[in-house]
Amino acid sequence: MDVKTACAATIAACAAAYLYHKVSTTTPVTSSPSLTTTEKRNLLANIPRHVQQQCHTIYHGAIIHSITFDDLQVIENGLLGVDHQGKICLLTDLDQSTSPTTPQEASTNTTNTTNTTNTTDITDNIHIVSLGSQFICPGFIDAHAHAPQHAFTGTGMDLPLLEWLQRYTFPHESKFSNLKHARKVYDRAVSNHLKNGSTTVSYFATIHPKSCMLLVDIVRERGQRALVGKVNMDRNSPDDYCETTEDSLRDTQIFVDYVLNLKDDTVIPVITPRFVPTCTPTLMKGLGKIAATHTLPIQSHMGETVEECGWVRSLHPESTTYSDVYIQHDLMPLEVSGAIDWLLFLFLVLVLVLVLSFFWTCKRLICYDLLFLLYCCCSV
Hints:
The protein is α/β, with parallel strands linked by helices. Helix content is 48%, strand content 18%. The protein has helices at residues 3-25, 37-43, 49-52, 103-108, 120-125, 161-173, 179-195, 209-222, 245-261, 281-294, 306-315, 322-328, 334-379, and strands spanning 30-31, 57-68, 71-82, 88-93, 127-136, 140-146, 198-204, 225-229, 231-232, 267-269, 272-273.
């Protein structure tokens, strides 16, 4: 056994031991079996009847969330209610307020009146979950995830990007034409994201439209909010993992139509050219047109290694920058590129102001020195 193999085995064993310890010591979230009807009523006493009628499950315990980017609210003894569709319909701090509010009422500071009469039938239908020592917080948003790459997570760390793609990524992703294989990996990918708290994820799938649709179905089955993209590649790719330009555009439109026809606002199709080296100008232009037609978001890669940037420069010498390639092919909307231009302009203006201020300050100091010398001479 060589040193690399021994190190890999040791790391794997440590990771397994850590995961076992984590699972075995985690306190499960459990319902409160000892909670009597009277205790339930006391807990829900200040919740208005019309709010109780909306609730299917109420979580009792610590709740942490952000009111704004700069304001973190920690509720140590709170109630969070969700309806039959899993949407939040109640949030209250039992230690601070006697008038719980729905999310909509919280935004308008509407005060509810207490109604505790005739609540026996409602109380019996509400499931109350005690969080114990755990807490609830908003789900994480993963803005960039390759769902098929869960099949080989943690491998190929010794290779630079472009070699890694050829040796590991493309061969593995080419297998996703097999829907059985795709379901196995996508089930695991979505489950792992949810277990780690990512309730919203922007996914890269593969070039295969049917397996991309399968990923959408799995995401919806698990109740995750997601953006899902069919990857596009029509050049500089392996023979068994490359599309023609026509097929790529056609399959992308089919995939987009499939997702939009679901009329599910929790899943959105996202236009996904893998990156410039694997997409011809015609393909990029066509994808930009599809995105504009349906007002869809766009995701890709840009400038991850020096070698990649050099490759793009050789493929598109007419473009001044990497991002300029996307701009010229309608894959970076004008408002985005315009914002970048404005930020650059403001940065240059700031630099100019600082430089002028520096020279003006130096000039004033020189003038003061000359006046002081003149004053000294006159005094003598």
